[in-house]
């Protein structure tokens, strides 16, 4: 697993450089297609990637296994998310600390992306993943998950 972070304005350039670095593949030689839920993948390769952006930054995560990433700018999230997105244990956990909301939300989004699922499936998450918390950007919460 490897990730790449940069300014949103340079998103295409970051993706091209990351793909070259991770898999030694030139972006001009690939075809990106999407599944029915909009998850992009690189056709005819065993390279998986996921993208997230928030505010002025973008992150791409690459792996040889299914992968998902979510990034949230700490000042942008809606604290009043519908209760349907959280079970009772999660609600209690979130009450302890505002940052816990970002931890749970980015984890759920990343797992959905890894599995190529839609938001309606947010409470059908399995535990077959390795989790990484990335803390190199101030004011952002980033979670990457990779299938085990």
Sequence-ordered SSE layout with sheet pairings:
Elements (H helix, E strand, L loop, with lengths): L1 E6 L3 H13 L8 E3 L5 E3 L5 E7 L2 E7 L3 E7 L14 H9 L1 H18 L13 E6 L5 E8 L1
Antiparallel strand pairs: 1-5, 2-3, 4-5, 6-8, 7-8
Helix pairs in contact: 2-3
What does this protein structure show overall?
The protein is of the alpha+beta class and 148 residues long. It has 3 helices and 8 strands, in the order βαβββββααββ. The model has no long low-confidence stretch (mean pLDDT 88).
In short:
The protein has 148 residues and is of the alpha+beta class.
Radius of gyration: 15 Å
CATH architecture: Alpha-Beta Complex
The tally of domains stands at: 1
Share in β-strands = 25-35%
According to CATH, what is the topology?
Ribosomal Protein L22, Chain A
């Amino acid at each position: 697993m490897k990730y790449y972070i940069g300014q949103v304005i340079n998103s295409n350039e970051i993706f091209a450089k990351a793909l070259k670095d991770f898999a030694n593949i030139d972006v001009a030689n690939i075809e990106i297609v999407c599944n029915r839920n909009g998850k992009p993948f690189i056709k005819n390769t065993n390279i998986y990637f996921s993208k997230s952006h928030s505010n002025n930054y973008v992150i791409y995560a690459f792996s040889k296994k299914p992968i998902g990433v979510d990034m949230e700018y700490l000042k942008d999230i809606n604290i009043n998310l519908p209760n349907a997105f959280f079970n009772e244990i999660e609600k209690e956990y979130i009450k302890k600390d505002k940052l816990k909301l970002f931890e749970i939300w980015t984890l759920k989004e990343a797992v959905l992306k890894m599995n190529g699922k839609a938001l309606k499936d947010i409470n059908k998450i399995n535990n077959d993943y390795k989790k990484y918390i990335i803390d190199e950007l101030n004011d952002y919460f980033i979670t990457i998950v990779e299938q085990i």
